[in-house]
Write a structure and sequence with these properties.
about 425 residues, mainly alpha, Ribonucleotide Reductase, subunit A, two-stranded antiparallel ribbon, 15 helices, 5 strands, about 55% helix, binds fe (ii) ion, Acyl-desaturase 5, chloroplastic, Fatty_acid_desaturase-2
Length: about 425
């Protein structure tokens, strides 16, 4: 699961890693240029906006992070609101047990009919193994540095899967109470995790075999990110969580779908197939989570619309929002690895602010938010906010695009060196 949207943090302290590097929480207004040919995703590139800001960021994503004193770059976030599920919500989630058993678990694929990473990669026991690796490397060598940065960021995000499973098991009424509970929520969480586990696995092995990246730096980043965790402010609340995961799964479907298309464009058919299969999994997961939230809207429309509103006001943070390789800031004048990665994802067209707005639009339509009827009050205010939110995000995108254009004209270019790709440089403008 993943999304690249970061918050434009108004007045909140910046994240501070224990290595002393300060990561600005404001989005850079810089776009990236590849050293190689540009891909044909015109509408995304013309948007020209960073995927790292949202217009309604009243609540900071990470209020503060204190050094842990251990010398590692693990980031800690102070405590926050917890256990916010309302009384009716408890009844609704409990009432969904049968539905989850009958309908939710259907979205999982049996292991015997699932693809495995090994189906897509060179076979180590084959006498042709080295030839197969050479073939893979020929495709990978076509990939430009900016694409590789985004692919590594996507892989690192997938590899930080323990944080996502951990999050699902903080949920009131829907967690796995034992580690092997037979409740449908617990089985969903474990088997969803098992499906997701293949994503990081296959991308990791592909990148290792490609020879195009610095695996030590990447592995170092994964260890740090899992150690730092993930904080989308879900408050142990399954309503908030299922809105978040609905958004995230659609965002990852879009992102992996675009890396697949770009891989094909650059001539890497192996990687195109890998990313395409991952995107198809994310589409199935999106369908599952949006179906859960649909049930919430049917059984508790007021609770559901307020949860959707709450997550949109907070902004959907990407699961890698605490990413750090321990060196990026010191090698790039204090720049944040996360923000630079998000900028490159935006400029390559893999995931943009326009995508964020499209997802908001889609979910508003999918859950028929405009058709709900409330007798005034907070629910109606939330409904009105939600129906206008995509336009609000698009206006921000346009402002960012204009700012980038101005910066470009003034020659305000920056180049970042990414340890993930052996310190090679990628332009950010
Ligand atoms: Fe995934
Ligand atoms: Fe997924």
């Amino acid at each position: 699961m993943k999304s690249l949207l970061w918050k434009k943090n108004r007045g909140a302290p910046a994240i501070e890693a224990s290595n002393g590097a300060r990561a600005s929480t404001c989005a850079p207004s810089l776009a990236c240029k590849s050293r190689q040919k540009r891909p044909p995703i015109g509408h995304r590139l013309t948007a020209g906006v960073s995927a790292t800001s949202t217009p309604e960021a009243a609540v900071p994503t990470a209020q503060a992070a204190a050094p842990n004193g251990t010398g590692s770059a693990t980031i800690y976030i102070p405590s926050q609101k917890t256990h916010s599920l309302h009384a009716q919500g408890v009844e609704v989630i409990d009432s969904l047990q049968d539905w989850a058993e009958q309908r939710l678990l259907r979205f999982l694929k049996p292991v015997q009919s699932s693809w495995q990473p090994q189906d897509l990669l060179p076979e180590p026991s084959s006498p042709d193994f080295y030839d197969q690796v050479q073939e893979l490397r020929r495709g990978a060598q076509q990939l430009p540095n900016d694409y590789l940065v985004v692919l590594v960021g996507d892989m690192v995000t997938e590899e930080a899967l323990p944080s996502n499973m951990n999050l699902l098991n903080t949920l009131d009424c829907a967690k796995d109470e034992t580690g092997a509970s037979t409740s449908p929520w617990a089985r969903w969480t474990r088997q969803w995790t098992a499906e997701e586990n293949r994503h990081g696995d296959v991308l990791n092995k592909y990148l290792y075999l490609s020879g195009c990246v610095d695996m030590h730096s990447i592995e170092n980043t994964i260890q740090r990110l899992i150690g730092s965790g993930l904080d989308p402010k879900l408050e142990n609340n399954p309503y908030l969580c299922f809105v978040y995961t609905s958004f995230q799964e659609r965002a990852t479907k879009i992102s992996h779908g675009n890396t697949a298309r770009l891989a094909a464009y650059h001539g890497d058919t192996v990687l195109a197939k890998i990313c395409g299969l991952v995107a198809a999994d994310e589409a199935r997961h999106e369908a599952a989570y949006t179906n859960i939230v649909e049930q919430l809207f049917i059984r508790d429309p007021e609770g559901a619309v307020l949860a959707f509103y709450d997550m949109m006001k907070k902004g959907i943070v990407m699961p890698a929002h605490l990413v750090d390789d321990g060196k990026h800031a010191s090698n790039n004048g204090g720049a944040s690895l996360f923000l630079d990665y998000a900028t490159v994802a935006d400029s390559t067209g893999v995931y943009t602010t326009a995508d964020y707005a499209d997802i908001v639009d889609h979910l508003v339509s999918r859950w028929r938010v405009a058709d709900l009827r409330f007798p005034g009050g907070k629910a109606e205010e939330a409904q009105q906010f939600l129906c206008q939110h995509a336009d609000r995000v698009r206006r921000l995108a346009n402002i960012q695009a204009e700012r980038k254009l101005r910066d470009r004209k003034r020659g305000k270019a920056r180049i970042a060196s990414f340890g993930w790709v052996n310190g090679r440089q990628v332009s950010l403008i």
